Inverse folding.
């Protein structure tokens, strides 16, 4: 096999592949149920529709309503708050956990088997379990607080409008930290050991190595994980729906929940579509922004770079 | 082809880490160990009080281990609590110390849950899972192959389009999907769930598979081309066998997504006959609000298949994620 013979076919080869045909089935499904619906939502956002009768064209009324509806603006504010809060809760913890688990000791491997368990339970299952744990009368937390003499700390965690939002955010973090620490663990495992060896020779301590090697090397993992977290916070629905239903009052009614209630409970499908489109636009804008800022879109092979 | 075999054995993705990489990892600690020795030799010539910072750094090293243990309790205890509660009698739930195992363990909750149609919901969930994941693999693999092996403007555009899908929240399209599914007269059937699950499984599956297939050395590919293999043959004999870890990752990941999905069933189905597990849990919670042990039994039962999947596929899941998301 001569060298020239090996190179020649690849130069000609790719251009003649019917790539479109190979991607067609995936594209069809994806276009029909992910892209086309965005267009339908755009149309519906200019109509009034209760989900059954004929949709009536109303022009930009729903959009104008979006920017003046105090309930919706409240939901927007909560969503942004939730986004920031859950990112701040999850990122440092998952990063530390991931780096910790990347170590080779056996006990870490055993511990990490259990870390990932929350990933396997449906959000509904997790919501139901935490509702029980947080129960004001018989829940684990209040029973424990009373048993150790801190009865005054016991409260209705999900019934208190000032607390419910934070409690929900903590449970969300609890649910997703395992996934993100998994990303960080795989990222940390791929950092070439030589970097640490060299740093050690230079007398770098544990902290120094973490901030000078681990953190910069995990840049792409931090981006990937953040994209998942930030766009994910636009989809937090199941857990909040099960735990609080958006209440008490409107204390936990973030935008995805507000969309569901508007469209499917109050049967204002047109107005719900406006909210849905704002969600989609935010998700896409967020991802594009993060990808653009970091040049991740090149999507070049990570192995080639090494 | 013999050349291919030889190349294969040293591939960077066969088992997550290449043989050379693993060897390097094994060799690497040695020099650092020597360096440690050298460092340790120096302080012995110095006054003993100089060794104190060394001992505190040993203590510092215990901090991560302690945090790891702490998180273990935080991550695991709620699930353990759920399991223990599911074995309590209803009276026991109110009387027992919630931190201790049940004083009178019972399986009654499980039998009651089972009699409440859990078998049917389980079958519904399994049906949706198997068909959705099979379809996702069937359409994602060729797409990923084309994107990874043919780099031109068209495939790059298609890939970007798929990546865009990662950023579209389900909530954003659930209204039109509801309209679409109703229009197709599929509302309140299990196929109403399968179609959108497949569509939303495609972006991540394609991403993971493209990243993986791209790292298969081009030489292998060219060698097969020279042997006169068609693209289908290359896909079947080279790409699919080599991509096993990525395929398993996609399978496990999408299985979890489909199994645990709540929004689509909530919006797209209605009758108990087509109820899937998360929806069943939810309605169960409304129905038996006071019977916490029974609810906990239902919650645990609903996760058993995923737990089994995890037990058997954990290593592959981690290996595949390494390839899928990498650094």
């Amino acid at each position: 096999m001569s060298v020239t013979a090996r190179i020649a076919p690849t130069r000609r080869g790719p251009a003649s592949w019917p790539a479109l045909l190979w991607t067609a089935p995936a594209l069809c499904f994806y276009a029909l149920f992910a892209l086309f619906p965005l267009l339908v939502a755009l149309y519906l956002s200019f109509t009034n529709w209760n989900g059954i009768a004929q949709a009536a064209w109303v022009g930009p009324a729903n959009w104008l309503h979006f920017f003046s509806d105090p309930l919706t603006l409240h939901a927007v504010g909560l969503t942004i708050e939730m986004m920031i809060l859950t990112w701040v809760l999850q990122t440092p913890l998952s990063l530390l956990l991931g780096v910790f688990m990347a170590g080779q000791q056996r006990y870490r491997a055993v511990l990490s088997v259990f870390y990932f368990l929350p990933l396997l339970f449906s959000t509904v299952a997790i919501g139901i379990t935490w509702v029980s744990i947080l129960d004001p009368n018989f829940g684990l937390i209040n029973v424990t607080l009373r048993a150790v003499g801190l009865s005054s700390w016991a409260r209705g965690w999900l019934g208190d409008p000032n607390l419910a939002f934070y409690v929900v955010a903590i449970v969300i973090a609890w649910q997703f930290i395992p996934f993100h620490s998994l990303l960080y663990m795989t990222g940390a495992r791929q950092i070439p050991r030589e970097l640490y060896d060299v740093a050690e020779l230079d007398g770098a301590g544990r902290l120094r190595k973490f901030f000078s090697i681990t953190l910069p090397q995990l840049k792409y993992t931090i981006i990937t994980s953040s994209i998942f977290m930030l766009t994910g916070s636009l989809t937090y629905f199941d857990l909040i729906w099960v735990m609080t239903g958006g209440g008490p009052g409107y204390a936990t009614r973030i935008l995805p929940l507000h969309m569901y209630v508007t469209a499917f409970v109050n049967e204002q499908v047109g107005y719900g579509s406006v909210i849905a489109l704002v969600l989609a636009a935010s998700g896409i804008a967020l991802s594009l922004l993060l990808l653009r800022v970091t040049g991740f879109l090149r999507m070049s092979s990570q192995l080639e770079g090494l | 082809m013999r050349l291919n075999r030889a190349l294969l054995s040293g591939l960077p993705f066969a088992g997550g880490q290449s043989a050379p990489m693993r060897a390097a990892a094994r060799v690497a600690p040695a020099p650092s160990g020597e360096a440690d020795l050298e460092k340790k030799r120096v302080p012995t010539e110095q006054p003993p009080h100089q060794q104190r910072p060394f001992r505190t750094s040993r203590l510092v090293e215990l901090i991560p281990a302690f945090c790891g243990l702490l998180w273990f309790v935080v991550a695991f205890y709620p699930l353990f609590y759920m399991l223990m509660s599911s074995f309590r009698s209803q009276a026991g739930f109110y009387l027992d110390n919630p931190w201790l195992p049940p004083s009178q363990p019972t399986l009654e909750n499980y039998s009651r849950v089972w009699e409440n149609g859990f078998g049917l919901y389980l079958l519904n969930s399994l049906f949706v899972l198997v068909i959705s994941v099979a379809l996702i693999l069937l359409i994602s693999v060729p797409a990923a192959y084309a994107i990874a092996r043919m780099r031109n403007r068209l495939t790059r555009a298609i890939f970007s389009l798929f990546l865009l899908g990662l950023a579209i929240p389900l909530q954003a399209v659930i209204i039109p999907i509801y309209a679409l599914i109703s229009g197709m007269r599929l509302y309140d059937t299990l196929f109403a769930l399968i179609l959108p699950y497949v569509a939303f499984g495609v972006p991540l599956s394609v991403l993971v598979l493209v990243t993986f297939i791209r790292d298969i050395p081009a030489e292998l590919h060219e060698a097969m081309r020279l042997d006169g293999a068609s693209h289908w043959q290359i896909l079947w004999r080279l790409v699919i066998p080599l991509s096993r870890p990525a395929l398993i990752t996609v399978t496990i990941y999408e299985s979890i997504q489909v199994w645990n999905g709540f929004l689509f069933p909530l919006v797209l189905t209605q009758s108990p006959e087509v109820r899937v597990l998360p929806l069943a849990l939810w309605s169960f919670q409304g129905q038996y609000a006071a019977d916490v042990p029974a609810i906990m039994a239902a919650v645990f039962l609903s996760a058993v298949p995923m737990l089994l999947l995890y037990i058997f596929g954990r290593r592959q899941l981690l290996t595949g994620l390494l390839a899928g998301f990498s650094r």
